[in-house]
Structures are given as structure tokens and as C-alpha cells.
Automatic annotation (TrEMBL):
GO terms for cellular component: plasma membrane. This is Cysteine-rich domain-containing protein. Residues 72-150 form the Cysteine-rich domain. Pfam families: CCG (PF02754). One of its GO terms (molecular function) is metal ion binding. The lineage of its organism: unclassified sequences, metagenomes, ecological metagenomes. It comes from marine sediment metagenome. Keywords: 4Fe-4S, Iron, Iron-sulfur, Metal-binding, Oxidoreductase.
Length: 192
């Protein structure tokens, strides 16, 4: 993103890179994927309309959450990271629990989506626009069903970036970034 700010020609290198990767993907070229492409495969599986997940199993009974409301907490892929990285002791769900606890402590009972899917960040940057758009459209539909109109809290920076930069399409909801100083949470307000 910094390249765009300083480029004297005004070239949007992020869009250029995504565009080149999309063309390469369409031509059958694959980018080198970290972790053997496991997350890209998981994201493609998540595009299935019949997918059944236990997205709410990590939430403690003491947590205050809603099924509809003004503010949504988009958890993203965090529940899958603990399983995938268990051999190195990654505990990403602790971050989700801390975020939820923090929101509750400041009086926010966020909406959590039982049918949320991954944001598709790795698919987008790998050029697989077909599967990325399926995930984006699914998540936007789920967000709209929740009635969220004040904002969305993201903990994962790549999810935040994906929504703010990539999901800003005319056929989908548009988002604007609002950052909280001294906080790990970002709020993204919907603008339609």
C-alpha cells in the first residue's frame, strides 16, 4: 500500500499484483502457497453451500452475544488455526476470547455469525477470484441477515484488509475503516 502513496506515476501496485495473479491463476499457474496450500484448500471447501460448521463451539456460556444487532464480531479463520498449528502451541482462540471479553467489558454484546466463513484473503491474493467471490458474497449475505449497521470488529489484520480493500465492490456492501487507538480491535463501519 505504501508503494501507491509514493509512486510518481500513481500505479496501484496492490491492484496490479492481484490482477496479474488472477490472470496467472486463470491460465493454470499457481502461486507458491504457505503451509502446503492447506488454508487455500480449506477456503475452497468453505465455498460449499452445504457446509456444516460448529462456529459457535468456542464461545463460553458466560459470554454476552447476540444473533442480531448493531455491532458484529467477525472471527474469521481463528478457530481453524489452533487445530492446524497445534504442534507449535498456537492458541489463536485465546485472542478471540480476549476480544469477546473486551467487547463485553465495554458494554458491547456483539453479533456472532453461526454460518460465517473465512474471508478468503489467501484466495484473493493467490488469484483465485472465483472462490474468493463466493466466500465474500456468502459473508456479506450473512452480515446483512444479522442486521448489523454500526460496525464490524475484526481481530485479524488480513481479514480487516480483505473487507476494507477487496470486498468494497459495487455489488456488495462498502466498508470504511475506523481505528481505535491503543486497541487490538478495529471497527469497520458500513456505508451504503
Amino acid at each position: 500500500a505504501r508503494c501507491l502513496e509514493v509512486c510518481p506515476q500513481g500505479i496501484d501496485y496492490m491492484e496490479l499484483t492481484k490482477g496479474f495473479r488472477a490472470v496467472a491463476h486463470k491460465e493454470g499457474e499457481e502461486t507458491v502457497c504457505s503451509h502446503g496450500g492447506a488454508f487455500q484448500s480449506l477456503m475452497r471447501i468453505m465455498t460449499s453451500k452445504t457446509l456444516q460448521q460448529n462456529r459457535m463451539g468456542w464461545i463460553p456460556k458466560s459470554a454476552k452475544i447476540k444473533t442480531e444487532g448493531d455491532i458484529l464480531y467477525f472471527v474469521g479463520c481463528l478457530p481453524y488455526f489452533d487445530v492446524f498449528f497445534s504442534n507449535i502451541g498456537v492458541k489463536t482462540l485465546n485472542a478471540s476470547l480476549s476480544t469477546l471479553t473486551l467487547l463485553n467489558k465495554i458494554g458491547i454484546e456483539p453479533v456472532l455469525l453461526p454460518n460465517e466463513r473465512c474471508c478468503g484473503h489467501d484466495l484473493l491474493w493467490g488469484g483465485d477470484l472465483e472462490h474468493f467471490l463466493k466466500l465474500a458474497k456468502h459473508n456479506i449475505k450473512e452480515i446483512k441477515k444479522s442486521g448489523t449497521d454500526a460496525g464490524i470488529v475484526f481481530f485479524i489484520a488480513s481479514t480487516d484488509t480483505t473487507f476494507v480493500i477487496a470486498v468494497r465492490k459495487p455489488s456488495m456492501t462498502t466498508f470504511a475503516m475506523i481505528r481505535f487507538p491503543n486497541s487490538s480491535a478495529n471497527l469497520v463501519a458500513r456505508i451504503e
